[in-house]
Amino acid sequence: MIEKGKILEHLDKYDYDIRKTGNGRWIDQKCTPDVLSIVADCVHNYINDNGIYERFTSKDIWHSEYTESFVEQIFSKPNTKHEKTTNEYDKFFSQPLELLAHARILKKSKIGRSNYYRADNLRLLEFISIREFNSLNFLIEYIKKVLQDSNQLIHFIEFFDKQTPESFVQLKTQYEDFIIKNTKINGVTEVRRIFTKVLNPLAYSKKKKGTQRGRLSKNIITLSMLMYNQENFRDISSEKPKNMTRQEWELEHQSKINKEFFKYQSSKAKSFIKKYNDEFRNSKSEVNDEYSSGVATQIHHIFPEGQFPQIAMYYENLIALTPTQHFNKAHPNNHTYIIDEDYQEILLKAKAGTIKEDLTRSDEPIYSFENFITVINVGFNTDYEIVGEEYLYVMEVLNSHYCN
């Protein structure tokens, strides 16, 4: 597992001062946390198939078999071979690749008119590829480091302290002037498009206002505002109006959600939990019962993916089981469309134990009880909020639900 310290350790090796690099596109319009994570995932799979020393271009990545298997659904655009989308796909892949190269996670070389890349920090590339929150955490630290090296971070800190329209205009003007003076970008329009990707991740990390439609945002920046697939990341706890029920809010947003993206996230999450369970739990089942002997090869959705796609990618909704547990108990008689509710209770309580163990043992845990209560709320159609000791609270919630 990559810890935050490893991100900082990597970034500290390099000087990203824009006045020296002259690179005004060290981050770009398509470099959202979700797109960056997708591209990193595609690159990581390409490297796994072709070898760590294999050089590749942007087109090699977006024409790869792995990419073509899901990218059309994720981006809601025609497939990667469609002539009319060539320029659009090139941006989606080349801009994150350039960011990864500038950050020294990839090595870049130019042969003729083409940019070629190869892996330079494979572990950090994999970390970014695993999920969007990893990508976001990397982006925040990367942005801070570039601004710090460029002697620009102080201006952003001043804006976060003041949060006024005047301080926003002052910051935006300062950044525009700085980029135009020190890079090949010579127009404010292009700088302003990129400025959003610089400011808003920092604003989100500090729970502050940022920019929206070129102006100071009315409210603090939310996670969904940072993403390309915005509807898929909307947070009911922070974005649902108080006079609207959970059911009403979800119904309103359901039609806008990209369900194929949820499937992609779910697939990545299952792969990660399988790898994590193999590496840190010796491939053991998370449920200790009469069927737990043997290797836990199955990653099971506690609340079914088909019924609850919005929580299918949550690690807290995934549990490692043996084949017997999965096909005989979780899905009785191997009917994968059936859930045994009695066994579901056992699974949820076992998962609570896994989460507690992870939080106690790890400096960089992969689970949280906050996410677990979100999973429970969606699965049970409830609105619980954790009060007091987290583990005890969720166990009380589970006991209460299944007793009733």
From TrEMBL:
It comes from the Bacteria. This is Restriction endonuclease. It comes from Lacicoccus qingdaonensis.
